[in-house]
Amino acid sequence: MTKSVKWLLIGIILLIIVGMITYPRIKQKLNSEKDTQVPTIAVSQRRLPLSINVVVLKKQPLTDKIISTGTTIPDEEVDLSFESSGKIVDIRFNEGTHVKKGDLLAKINDKPLQAELKKLEAQIPLAKERVFRQGALLKKDAVSQEAYEQVTTEYDKLMADIELVKAKILQTELRAPFDGIIGLRLVSEGAYATPSTVVANLTKISPLKIEFSIPERYAADVSDGTNIAFYMEGTSGMVKEYQAKVYAVEGKVALETRSLKVRALYPNVNEAILPGRYLSVEIMRREIKNALSVPSEAIIPEMGKNIIYLYKGGEAESAEIITGLRTESHVQVLEGLHPGDTVITTGVMQLRTGMKVNIDNLIEE
Q: How distant, in Å, are the alpha carbons of 24, 28, 33, 48 from that of 38?
């Protein structure tokens, strides 16, 4: 090994030793400088004003409503079928048309019954004559009371048989049980029908029933005669409001949903609304005409108190309020605020009294 190489190796070793001694001190110094910079940056960030949304309060109506969803159902509805079995020989209705109560809609073959009826009716004159003769003879004591009663019984039996056949003939006729709109027919002439065969569906849609459910806690607020408003999308795509009146409330709460089923009647005079439509329902519980209210999200529950933050001169200032009526979106303020106050509605969990804030959006209540 040459002398120059030897001194080079010694120099490298000395540099490594010096580096090992000075590195911990340099690292400690860099970390301390970093620690002093981070709080400074964080403090500067905290001092930036918080962007908020606010509302300017004013007195306005506040309504407490029950909101639900429901559906339209027919006032009356039935699947039409015959009471007896036989071949359908006549269908007398047009699908989708109005029919009146008692209209003959369809008929099955009744020729055997008609023949039996004629046979029985042909025996009436002779049976009457026997009763008349036996009655005349009984007055003369020419026959016994028993003989007279026998012919009268035979006559009564004949008339009962006639009534029975007539009843069977009526069972071959399908008549409308009420006024309504008959739907699409499900059978054709010549088909064999039984009491389980559905011929068509008949519905009555004027008036129309509105069926919906309410939570059990509102059971005392809805009864026979309660007015409701329901909303549906019209043919133009616009949502329309309609008025109806409750006529019946279920007698018990549904265990599965803890709700109470309610039905209301809508006149539906022009039959513009069809059964099966989806709708939303509103029931007015009470209304306060001049109420001071704040959005629900502006209130912070804190140790049994309700706290809100006001915007004053670029800073947030807390205030305790006494609340009243609560709706889905707003809470009535009884004490603690005045008309014209500016209430902060966003970022409320980050606010502290005296904190700098900057209005991002202003809404007038």
A: 21, 16, 9, 16
> What average pLDDT does this structure show over 2-7?
63
Give Cβ neighbours of residue 109 (< 8 Å, ≥ 6 apart).
86, 87, 89, 172
Contact 253, 183 (CB under 8 A): no
Per-residue pLDDT tens digits for 60-69: 888 888 999 9
Burial zone of 62 (CB within 10 Å; 0-12 exposed, 13-18 middle, 19+ buried): buried
Q: Cα(261)–Cα(265) distance, rounded to whole angstroms?
A: 14
> What six digits make up the tokens of 204?
């009555």
Q: Which residues touch 360 (CB under 8 Å, ≥6 apart)?
A: 51, 52, 53, 346
**Selection from 120, 116, 112, 128 nearest residue 158 by Cα:** 120
98-103-107 Cα angle (round to 5): 115
Amino acid type, 244: A
Q: What is the DSSP letter of 355?
A: -
**What are the pLDDT digits (tens) for 299-357?**
999 888 999 999 998 999 999 999 988 887 889 899 999 998 999 999 889 899 999 99
Q: What whole-number distance in Å separates Cα of residue 320 and Cα of residue 279?
A: 40
CA 316, CA 231: separation in Å to the nearest integer? 41
Give the tens place of pLDDT for each residue, 69-109.
999 999 999 999 999 999 999 999 999 999 999 999 999 99
DSSP 147: H
Q: Give the pLDDT band (50/70/90) at residue 42.
A: very low
**DSSP per position, 78-145:** EEE--SS-EEEEEE---TT-EE-TT-EEEEE--HHHHHHHHHHHTTHHHHHHHHHHHHHHHHTT-S-H
The CA distance from 148 to 154, in Å, is: 10
- Smallest CA-to-CA distance from 281 within 365, 205, 221, 207 is with 221
